[in-house]
């Protein structure tokens, strides 16, 4: 499929998705969100894709926010539709993808850009990255899950501090508070993200998908996460991957998983 604002490349089971609006600091507009929806949903059903690395073009920005010009004249109903469509078609799709998605944060990750990174399963940041949710400076609040996912990742107090002050933090602070999993250099960012995925690829794809679903249930008030875990745990016993994993362990050999 051809995308207007994305560069997409599949190599060795890793799907590289690069938001390609470098002159706009890779700001999210309607077309980019549309492209992301189709790229992620296609990857979910593509057996050749084991995991995804999401990044931005160039070295300045991962995504430096939403394209403000598109919603500058919106009213409340249009704002509601904007947030709901983004959540259901992009951010929730990323979070609920059963293939691991790593955000390689190569620069500014602000507003919708940080929300995009937080929807990913793992975040790795370049030492030059700057992260923040500056929406209150525009008379808005985060609308793509930022108030919820930031609170889950760093706790209520720090989330409120970041959102209410609209201040940016650097990569070291983001790592210290648990907003990103790992730090890297601009030159090694993608290599380090690839290494994380290659470690994951040695494990059972069936179990990885089950683990993502179980972990995601922890943030849902209307779901008993312990029951989801029990259900996912029990389903693994019926998988070919479980039989292969146990056999490989007992035979002291590397497992050859199929994801079934």
Search tags:
260 residues; alpha/beta; 6-stranded mixed β-sheet; 4-stranded mixed β-sheet; globular
What does this structure look like?
The mean pLDDT is 96. The chain has a 6-stranded mixed β-sheet with strand order 1-2-3-5-7-10, sandwiched between helices. A 4-stranded mixed β-sheet has the order 4-6-8-9. The longest helix is centred in the N-terminal third of the chain and has 21 residues, at 76-96. The chain is an alpha/beta fold. It is globular and about 60 Å long. It has 10 helices and 10 strands. Helices cover 46% and strands 16% of the residues. The chain has helices at 30-45, 76-96, 112-119, 146-154, 156-165, 171-176, 189-201, 205-217, 225-236, 240-250, and strands at 6-11, 14-19, 51-56, 61-63, 101-105, 108-110, 122-126, 130-132, 169-170, 182-184.
Query: Which secondary-structure class do the elements indicate?
Result: alpha/beta
Oligomer: single chain
Number of strands: 10
SS summary, helix count = 10
Provide the helix percentage.
Answer: 40-55%
N- to C-terminal distance: 27 Å
**H/E series, N to C?**
EEHEEHEEHEEHHEHEHHHH
Strand order of the largest sheet: 1-2-3-5-7-10
Report the sheet-strand fraction: 15-25%
Low-confidence stretches: none
Calculate Rg over CA atoms. Answer: 19 Å
Largest sheet: 6 strands, mixed
What is the averaged pLDDT score? 96
The 3D shape can be described as: globular
Spell out the blueprint of helices and strands.
Blueprint (H helix, E strand, L loop, with lengths): L5 E6 L2 E6 L10 H16 L5 E6 L4 E3 L12 H21 L4 E5 L2 E3 L1 H8 L2 E5 L3 E3 L13 H9 L1 H10 L3 E2 H6 L5 E3 L4 H13 L3 H13 L7 H12 L3 H11 L10
Parallel strand pairs: 2-3, 3-5, 4-6, 5-7, 6-8, 7-10
Antiparallel strand pairs: 1-2, 8-9
């Amino acid at each position: 499929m051809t995308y207007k604002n994305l560069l997409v490349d599949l190599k060795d089971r890793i799907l590289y998705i690069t938001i390609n609006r470098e002159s706009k600091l890779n700001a999210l507009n309607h077309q980019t969100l549309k492209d992301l929806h189709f790229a992620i949903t296609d990857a979910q059903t593509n057996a050749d894709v084991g995991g995804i690395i999401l990044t931005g073009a160039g070295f300045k920005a991962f995504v430096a926010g939403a394209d403000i010009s598109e919603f500058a004249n919106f009213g409340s109903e249009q704002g509601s539709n904007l947030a709901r469509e983004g959540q259901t078609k992009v951010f929730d799709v990323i979070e609920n993808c059963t293939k691991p998605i790593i955000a390689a944060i190569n620069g500014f990750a602000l507003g919708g850009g940080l929300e995009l990174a937080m929807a990913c399963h793992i975040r790795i940041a370049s030492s030059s990255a700057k992260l923040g949710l500056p929406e209150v400076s525009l008379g808005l609040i985060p609308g793509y899950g930022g108030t919820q996912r930031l609170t889950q990742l760093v706790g209520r107090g720090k989330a409120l501090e970041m959102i209410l002050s609209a201040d940016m933090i650097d990569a070291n602070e983001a790592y210290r508070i648990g907003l990103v999993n790992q730090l890297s250099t601009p030159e090694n960012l993608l290599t380090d993200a690839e290494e994380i995925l290659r470690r994951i690829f040695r494990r059972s794809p069936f179990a990885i998908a089950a683990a993502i679903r179980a972990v995601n249930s922890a943030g849902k008030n209307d779901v008993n996460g312990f029951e989801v875990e029990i259900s996912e745990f029990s389903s693994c016993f019926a998988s070919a991957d479980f039989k292969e994993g146990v056999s490989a362990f007992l035979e002291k050999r590397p497992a050859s998983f199929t994801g079934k």
